[in-house]
Amino acid sequence: MNTFRIGFGYDVHQLKEGYEFWLGGIKLAHEKGAVGHSDADVLIHVICDALLGAANMRDIGYHFSDKDPKYKGIDSKILLREVMELIRKEGYELGNLDSTICLQNPKINPHIPGMKTCLAKVMNVAESQISIKATTTEWLGFVGREEGISAYCTTLIFKP
Ligand SMILES: Nc1ccn([C@@H]2O[C@H](COP(=O)(O)O)[C@@H](O)[C@H]2O)c(=O)n1
Ligand SMILES: C[C@@]1(CO)OP(=O)(O)OP(=O)(O)OC[C@H]1O
């Protein structure tokens, strides 16, 4: 019988002026950007966490410490590629992933096709395996005040 496993990821990054805004592997034009040790791509980080969680392989910070200067400003696509290698070494393939980005501004719907194309290439999967959704929080909380961005992701992985 095939082994199917599910995973879940959650992450938050501050939004501040003077920082680049990387999301889903692409750079968005916005007056604020995401703050982190890496490029702070919150969507990629939750995908990594959901994949690692599904494989019972800890989390992104365990593999790529935010205290390690090696990862300062790193492109999160490099981390995602490594996470795919880690789970594939254990014999897993991605079934599908479903994600939600919580962001008051800007609207990201127009950018979702570009994110899917980019992530599918990095992960070496089909775009149809990747779902990206977005919601505001109706001006409530840290997302609503535009102080931060959060994201959630679930994954299904399996051994073919
Ligand atoms: N940053 C965002 C947030 C939302 N969207 C899209 O708008 C729809 C309505 O948002 P609500 O928070 O009012 O539910 C949502 O379903 C998304 O399609 C977006 O593109 N970017
Ligand atoms: C990606 C890493 C490593 O550079 O740093 P951050 O960009 O701070 O991201 P976070 O999701 O807070 O923690 C994971 C870290 O391993």
Average pLDDT, all residues: 97
CATH superfamily membership, which one? 2-C-methyl-D-erythritol 2,4-cyclodiphosphate synthase
Per DSSP E runs of 2 or more residues, the count of β-strands stands at 7
Percent strand equals 25-35%
Spatial strand sequence of the major β-sheet:
4-1-7-5-6
Q: What structural class do you assign from the helix and strand content?
A: alpha+beta
Bound molecules: the ligand Nc1ccn([C@@H]2O[C@H](COP(=O)(O)O)[C@@H](O)[C@H]2O)c(=O)n1, 2C-methyl-D-erythritol 2,4-cyclodiphosphate
Shape descriptor = globular
> What helical percentage do the residues reach?
25-40%
The CATH first-level class comes to Alpha Beta
> Could you name the ranges where pLDDT drops below 50 across 5 or more consecutive residues?
none
Q: Which series of helices and strands comes N to C?
A: EEEEHHHEHEHE
Distance between the termini: 9 Å
Total helices: the number is 5
CATH topology annotation: 60s Ribosomal Protein L30, Chain: A
Radius of gyration, in angstroms, nearest whole number: 15 Å
What's the main sheet like? Answer: 5 strands, mixed
Total domain units: 1
Instruction: Specify the CATH architecture.
Output: 2-Layer Sandwich
